[in-house]
């Protein structure tokens, strides 16, 4: 039975419950007829009640069976116990593995914060300004990535002195010249699907915030790995050599030239179909990061019954990785590490956000190791449901938003005019008082 129906149980409903649990007529008469036990009373029974009359007068079998039945009923309705104030959640130690309760109702039971029956969040504020901050974060990181790509291009090892490293895949698969362009076309198609999901998803700003935060973090990590070690060029077909800075006379000119090259890479999103060609940025593959991130977000935030879409995104993800390797643009280790880091970070982030009890148990450590997560997900207390809006609802919400902003602007304008009139009236009164004096 549902939690609400337990509160509305009468003595007759409790009698039916006891009959289903296998109690005889003597127990029913004692509880329902003599003591008028209803649903709320039955749900609030505790250990002390079983030591007092009339429960202590029951035979041992009936008392034990009733105790088990009541505990089962309380377990099924623990959210209701919390709301009624019969169960209190206490704070826990940083490394404890269970939540201790100072309550006689569920002493050894771990109870998560009461979100909902299926774990879905009841607090889903859009926090548009957080989405904007995450967007600024990913823009800043992509700009750093573009500048680092210029630096590592100038540090690329000499192809004559450092030949391509042995690689199981590259050594056994012939080079396909058009494969890398096909990888980027696949990524563009996945990005289009993701834009459609964002457009119709009800909680689009939460999705945008998570996508920008995770993408920025992975690419920031990529900047570090690119700078630490410069791998040799993976294919002899690649014409990679440091740029010539002889025309730049001063260090300032060198810096301006590097910034212009970084802007060209950033504007073209690092894609060869946009005319961008880079070398040295091998560990790890940025194209694999983009494909995997888009695949995981589309799969996570679309309904489970859309098997065709999920299968399609996974196939495109795998084929995109194959195209990267077939083009001999990256080593196999570059692709493997990129897929592993991106998928693990996505799963860790969503595991913490979907299970807020884990974050609360290690809140201090979470803030230290995942500062962006602690800040961006502070307003969400559970799983974000996949709820979508129709085009009519989107236009209605947009119209309501614009109307609200317009009304606020009008109110502010009226208040400003009122203040100006009051100021002018006050100034006139002061001038009249001065003349009178």
Automatic annotation (TrEMBL):
Principal localization reads membrane
The record's listing under InterPro entries reads: SAM, SAM/pointed_sf, Sphingomyelin_synth-like, Sphingomyelin_synth-like_dom
Q: Where are the transmembrane segments?
A: 131-152, 176-199, 211-233, 282-299, 306-325, 331-349
The SAM domain covers 6-76
Query: What Pfam families does its record include?
Result: PAP2_C (PF14360)
Q: Which SUPFAM superfamilies match?
A: SAM/Pointed domain (SSF47769)
Which keywords belong to this entry? Answer: Lipid metabolism, Membrane, Sphingolipid metabolism, Transferase, Transmembrane, Transmembrane helix
Signal sequence, renumbered to the chain: none
Keyword Glycoprotein attached: no
| Record's bilayer topology term | Multi-pass membrane protein
Its subcellular locations are: Membrane
PANTHER family documented for this protein? SPHINGOMYELIN SYNTHASE-RELATED PROTEIN 1, SPHINGOMYELIN SYNTHETASE
* Similarity remark: Belongs to the sphingomyelin synthase family.
Question: What is the protein name given in its UniProt record?
Answer: Sphingomyelin synthase-related 1-like
Q: Which gene encodes it?
A: LOC108567675
